[in-house]
Amino acid sequence: MGRAVSQPKKYIVSCRINGHEMEALSKIAQKAGTNISDLLRQSIFRLERELRTSP
User: Considering all CA atoms of the chain, what is the largest pairwise distance in Å, rounded to the nearest integer?
Assistant: First the structure.
């Protein structure tokens, strides 16, 4: 049994990426001081905000 969390994640999303894309994700995550999963979550919310504020 896993640990209790305030916002459980029950969905898994996957996609295939090439080596260049993986390298880019790894570098960006490292510079941001996070992991790739959290980086992608942050990216989703950033894009969502941008789409809401664009004309």
Answer: 46
